[in-house]
Amino acid sequence: MTATDDDVITSWRDRVGTLRKRGRVSAAALTVVPAGEIDVRLGRPPASERLSDEERELWERLTFSRRPGWFSGAESLLESYVTAAIYCRRLEATLRKAKPGTSDRYQRLARLHRQSVALAATLATRLRLTPSSKLDKSQPTDGDMPVA
To answer: Residues with Cβ < 8 Å from 94, sequence gap 6 or more?
Structure first.
């Protein structure tokens, strides 16, 4: 049978693409985006040019570990956190190599490390990266009732 306008099957296949459901389209149906159109970088801030390769890697891991838009408006705070976290790692490596004791150099390194860890912890809390920032204090986490 030839494919003409009189052919019911051929004309039906042409029309299937134009058919829609009747009635009102729900808000949930309007939010559906085809998987091929999703860009995972959308809503994630790009790393600054000032960052080193190590800092860029941490930036990428952090931004892709959270939902898009998580850090919108807090890019400078995130950059400060990334810099502080890498600085902490470098200080820890230097402290491991240094001979522990009462030497002036070791004490200065230890004090710098404590201060940088405190700064990184504060920034992580402000950016809501820590587990405690995601927990509700009124709900028990292990099944026991909270102790007053």
So the answer is: 109
Phi, then psi, of 64 in degrees rounded to 5: -85, -5
Cα within 13 Å of Cα(27), Cβ side: 0
Tracing tokens 């890697």 back to the chain, one arrives at: 57
**Owner of token pair 């809390």:** 125
With b for 16 or more beta-carbon neighbours within 10 A and e for fewer, the 70-101 pattern comes to: bbeebeeebbbbbbbbbbbeebeeeeeeeeee
Residues 105, 98: contact at Cβ < 8 Å?
Answer: yes
Using CA atoms, how far residue 2 sits from 6, 13, 15, 30, in Å, is 9, 15, 18, 39
Structure tokens at 89: 């790692």
Distance CA 21, CA 93 (A): 63
**Residue (of 52, 45, 41, 114) closest to 82 by Cα position:** 52
pLDDT at 116: 96
Span 105-134, pLDDT tens digits: 889 999 999 999 999 999 999 998 887 766
Read off the pLDDT of residues 132-145 as tens digits, 9 standing for 90 and up. 766 666 666 655 55
Structure-model confidence comparison of residues 5 and 47, the more confident one: 47
